[in-house]
Write a structure and sequence with these properties.
Helix content of chain C: 55-70%
Strand content of chain B: 25-35%
Shape of chain B: elongated
Largest sheet of chain B: 5 strands, antiparallel
Number of strands of chain B: 7
Helix content of chain B: 40-55%
Largest interface: B-C, 21 and 24 residues
Radius of gyration of chain B: 22 Å
Chains: A mainly alpha (315), B alpha+beta (189), C mainly alpha (199)
Structural class of chain B: alpha+beta
Distance between the termini of chain B: 71 Å
Strand content of chain C: under 5%
Distance between the termini of chain C: 23 Å
Oligomer: heterotrimer
């Protein structure tokens, strides 16, 4: 995409329509979806179906209520929101909670802002944030991964294990996905594969994942150099938790990320900064969701102050 | 001139009336409020020292900000100490009370008096399941927080998902025990 | 007939909380359970009725320049009485409501009614206006409290509403939940009012 990002008119016509972009995003998520079914069984599929169904129904009802074209539910954006939300949830979660999450994601995350394109925050993350606040216990109950051969009902996630018990999970497990966690955050490898697909197809801006991941690496690396006993090493920070999912699929949402290159750098480095801050100094083990939501709220401001000025335009 | 005089008179009259009414009303309620506070204290003293049906006598040994020590008697014999202590929780102050054996061998019982922790998470420090485990914990040494079933009487099990609140309660108790042991030594001198 | 209008208007059409958006501080802060909401409604109704009555009585002798100061003295007297009364006879409720009872003194519904109505109207009309506004405030707080307690704890006034299958939405008894419910209720009130206005 390089310099083709334009915020104010004239807009360059792009042959890709919303449904087509969403279709490719869906393709890119297939490795993560397959992995979640492999690691957590058919339960993963049930969670995803519940999430998608609730998202689509909510979208339909509120398009109807707002007297808009209900055909918009087929643009795929509600479908992707449903999938992304499901990927951030623990596999054992109660299905009614999943449905509530998708309902909130679409209603509060999207429809109240005027539907697709008008939302400030990533809808899937709004849904997840609501669930985190509404059902903190259920959202922090993790079952063991099928491939990890751990004989226990509930286990700690790699980040939770580090935060509360100071246990480091080996890189190989984190990379391949033999760890507990939400449906879509287990295997860093498969998430990167999906992300690269989007990158090659040029549906996402390369600066976002690069900015997020490198800033997490740098900030946590500084802390690790200061005290390697107390703080986790940067590679662990990159591979553990929902960072890969967030950096490749959530932070890159075209509606809720900035358009000018400088703004994108500030945005993505900001996300990385907050991730490290929350993970290491906060009360929660994971902070990718809140980091992205926080930086989402800065997007309009960032775009406003970094917008390229027309020749001769005064400040 | 006349107008400003009226202002002065009206404001003065209303202030005096208001002050008078409130003075009378306060007299009417203050005894009740004091009694409420006293019964609340006696009730919690009774609860944490296992004194049934009522406490015969008690005296306040130390009373300062965030720390109160009470001595509970049966006849002339000291049967227990009760400690009211507060400290920072996850969101706001946590205030608690607990009873200790007179020789500080163990904690008799513990109650939470005030807390504003997250409902469903930190607020679980008020649940019976959590408070029950404090019965019989050692009071002669520092207690520590564990994530599993405690092995010794110096270990306290944390609440899953509410490590911060559990740590806060533990710190408040540890600090209060420390302070109480010192206060009693001083009193004996 | 006119008096009836003064009495009714606060219930819905000029609902102090959802239409005029006044008194939002107690609306958001103490509605995590119906019991707290009832305590707050009673305290506000007492203060509002008392001060509207006194203010409309004295409206002709209070010089215009110091009317606000005088009203505040009257209101503060009633608020302090309500606060002391709760502390003496309902210590648990008083503890649960915390600083929000003394804060009634800055509740805009109360000063607003004195300034907009009681200082310009007769005693009967002012008391009816205050009663109507209290009912409106009561409706608002009961709605907020009911929704938040039912969703957030699965109970209504301490009684179980759902079976054991229900998982409480903890966020509803937290401050964030208050904002969600408040937003949705304002939406509801305005849509209904708009629908009626069209007819």
């Amino acid at each position: 995409m390089m310099s083709l990002i334009v915020s104010s008119s004239p807009h360059i016509h792009h042959e890709d329509s919303v449904p087509k972009i969403m279709l490719h995003v869906f393709f890119s998520l297939i490795p993560a979806i397959v992995a979640s079914v492999y690691f957590f069984g058919s339960r993963a599929l049930t969670v995803m179906i519940a999430s998608i169904a609730s998202a689509l129904i909510t979208e339909y009802l509120f398009l109807l209520l707002r007297k808009k074209d209900t055909g918009a539910i087929f643009d795929g954006s509600a479908l992707i929101t449903g999938i992304l939300l499901a990927l951030t949830l623990p596999p054992s979660i109660n299905l009614s909670i999943v449905a509530i999450g998708a309902f909130v994601a679409i209603l509060i995350g999207k429809q109240v802002f005027g539907g697709f394109g008008g939302n400030i925050f990533n809808p899937a993350l709004v849904g997840r944030a609501f669930l985190q606040a509404a059902f903190p216990t259920q959202m922090a109950t993790w079952v063991a991964n099928k491939a990890s051969h751990i004989d226990a009902l509930t286990v700690a996630t790699p980040l939770g294990g580090f935060k509360f018990s100071h246990v480091l999970t080996p890189y190989k497990e984190l990379f391949l996905g033999n760890v507990s966690g939400s449906l879509g955050e287990t295997s860093a490898l498969l998430l990167i594969l999906g992300g690269i697909y989007l990158l090659v197809r040029r549906y996402i801006d390369w600066r976002i994942p690069v900015g997020v991941l490198s800033s997490v690496f740098v900030f946590s690396g500084i802390l690790w150099l200061v005290n390697s006993k107390k703080y986790p090493d940067p590679v662990f920070m990159l591979l553990a938790g929902g960072l890969m999912l967030g950096a490749w699929f959530m932070a890159t949402d075209p509606v809720t990320s900035p358009v000018t290159p400088i703004a994108i750098w500030i945005y993505s480095i900001g996300i990385g900064f907050f991730v490290v801050l929350i993970r290491i100094f906060g009360g929660l083990p994971e902070g990718v969701m809140y980091s992205i939501l926080i930086m989402n709220s800065f997007v309009p401001l960032l775009d406003k102050y970094t917008r390229t000025r027309m020749l001769g335009e005064r400040k | 001139m006349k107008e400003s005089l009226r202002i002065v008179i009206v404001l003065t009259v209303f202030s005096i009336l208001s002050g008078g009414i409130l003075g009378w009303f306060n007299k009417y309620t203050e005894k009740r409020v004091a009694l409420n506070n006293l019964t609340a204290l006696q009730e919690s003293l009774k609860a944490v020292t296992n004194m049934n049906p009522k406490i015969e006598a008690y005296e306040s040994v130390v009373k300062e900000k965030g720390f109160e020590l009470y001595k509970i008697f049966s006849g002339t014999e000291t049967v227990a100490y009760a400690i009211v202590a507060s400290g920072n929780g996850f969101q706001d102050k946590i205030k608690l009370i607990f009873g200790v054996k007179p020789d500080f061998s163990r904690i008799i019982d513990l109650r939470i008096l005030e807390q504003k922790e997250t409902p469903g998470m930190g607020a679980k420090i008020e649940t019976k399941k959590y408070l029950e485990q404090w019965k019989g914990k050692g009071a002669d040494s520092t207690l520590e927080l564990v994530k599993k079933k405690p092995n010794t009487k110096y270990q306290v099990e944390a609440i899953t998902g509410a490590t911060v609140s559990s740590t806060s309660v533990l710190n408040i108790v540890n600090r209060a025990l420390d302070r109480a042991r010192k206060a009693i030594k001083e009193a004996e001198k | 007939m006119n008096l009836l209008k003064e009495f009714i208007k606060g219930w819905w059409k000029e609902n102090p909380v959802f239409v005029m958006v006044l008194g939002t501080c107690p609306t958001l802060a103490v509605t995590n359970s119906v019991k707290n909401a009832i305590g707050m409604i009673a305290a506000v109704a007492f203060v509002l009725l008392g001060s509207s009555f006194i203010v409309s009585l004295i409206r002709k002798i209070v010089p215009n320049q110091v009317r606000i100061a005088t009203f505040i003295v009257v209101i503060a007297t009633f608020v302090t009485m309500a606060d002391r009364y709760l502390a003496a006879f309902y210590p648990q409720l008083s503890k649960a409501l915390g600083p929000y009872v003394p804060l009634i003194v800055v509740n805009c519904i109360i000063l607003g009614r004195q300034e907009a109505f009681a200082s310009k109207n007769g005693v009967l009309a002012s008391v009816l206006d205050a009663l109507g506004m209290s009912i409106g405030f009561g409706i608002a707080l009961m709605l907020m409290g009911s929704v938040r307690e039912i969703l957030g704890s699965g109970t209504w006034l301490g009684m179980k509403v759902f079976g054991s299958w229900y998982i409480p939405w903890q966020v509803m008894i937290l401050p964030a939940g208050a904002f969600f419910v408040f937003g949705f209720l304002i939406w509801g009130f305005n849509s209904i009012n708009k629908a009626f206005a069209k007819r």
